[in-house]
Amino acid sequence: MYDNKNKTFLVARFIFTIVTGVCAGIGCSHQKMVDVVVVGGGLAGLAATYEIQAPGVKVLLLEKEKRLGGRIQTRNHNGEPYEKGALFAYSSIMVPPECGKPSPRIFNRKPVGFSLNGTVYLGRSVRLAMEKYNWSPREREILEHVFKSHEVGTAFAFPHLIQVFAAFFNAIHPGELKKYLKVRWQDSLIRWPVSERKNGNSELVEFYTKCIQAGVLLNAKVLRVEETGGHRVKVTYTYKGKRRQVVSRYVVVAVPAPIANEIVMNKKPVVAEFLQSVRYVPGFVVVLFVPPGKVIDFSYVVFADGEASSVFAMPCVRKNCTKLYVYYARDRAVKMSTLPVKKAVSRTVRELKRAGVGSLSIGDVLFADTGFWQYLAPVIDAAFERIDARGYIFASEHVILAGEYAWGQPVTASAGIMPYGMYAAYRSGVAAGETVATLLGEKR
Ligand SMILES: Cc1cc2nc3c(=O)[nH]c(=O)nc-3n(C[C@H](O)[C@H](O)[C@H](O)COP(=O)(O)OP(=O)(O)OC[C@H]3O[C@@H](n4cnc5c(N)ncnc54)[C@H](O)[C@@H]3O)c2cc1C
Asked: Fewer CB under 10 Å: which end of the chain, C or N?
């Protein structure tokens, strides 16, 4: 993928100022012209920008926030990194070799478990954890059958069983199990390897930022992307309180589907219909640093009842503490986001204690932070049955949609489409970028 990209080539690329919050020049005065505009500086937008850039090609990346990375967001407390967005360590294949070297991956290999009626049942696998519970003989039979056949649907007639399967499903997917494509239901049965990068996932964003020679405009919110005819696309955005425009030959729109639906004009009807049908789930995360020994030993525990969905644990890298990541989804996430931080933290501590995760009290918390995500993840439902497996979507002749939701390639033969997560975002960005690079090459 990166064969054609060596260091010399990178240095020789067209450079027109990387900016951080300051207008770069192009795109700031009225109706400037570039070759490509990339909308959204998340992983998909960054990967696309990197793929497109080449000597003589003018690329402008517009990002509405004051930072790049989107849902990848590592923060730091007294030297200890923690993740407010994507938690699991990104895969090193996402790093163009000349852009950086991933920091070590740290794993938590302790057991996984579920909490029900205030007790945690732990095991080395989802199956072993579930076998610890006092199921009725019939439930135990169904449990056996589900693990043998991977047919989670057969447990629907057994409320307690499905409650626990759904809780394990929510360790990775924040939406309701039943609403997802059947092919994803078996994610309930998988034990996910919990790991973090020593320096956090945002180092991936830093690597791309270092390698991107395009113009980057932060605090630039795109309002409209419209084909003007004559093989041109007009992009309208706000920057420093003013409306501005830039005209481009191609535009890659790498934002969550509902935003793409809002800002991209004159889309093909089939694309408009798809974007309208993609639904996202909101999420809320509470990060707690606690002293070692205050919670039981686990890598993650899912909640079959109660308020939260799951809690993940990681050892602190630079201090003697444990990092807990507690996730809330859907209406509970929205509810938590309305609370003052202090209240959200004390409720979470109470919730962990109730669930049987530890003997925590608010006085044990060394540090806490919270984060709300309106677009935590797309629900992988029937809308995705039609998704193109290329990783990008032509909204119109010169406007390409990218982002996790656009990547529908099978992960493995058995696990079906997975348009969610960093890998999907990365693959989609690369695919969209390569396509635009080819089109530009053909037209030059
Ligand atoms: C709490 C949490 C935990 C997660 N855990 C994991 C995990 O463990 N493993 C995993 O693989 N994935 C995880 N994910 C998902 C992963 O973070 C995303 O799938 C991935 O980062 C999506 O990348 P993207 O580029 O498609 O979208 P985004 O990261 O959402 O990027 C879109 C960018 O577009 C910008 N934007 C939006 N609107 C506009 C506009 N109008 N104009 C300009 N810019 C705009 C946004 O500010 C953002 O920077 C998690 C996500 C969250 C929130």
From this structure: C
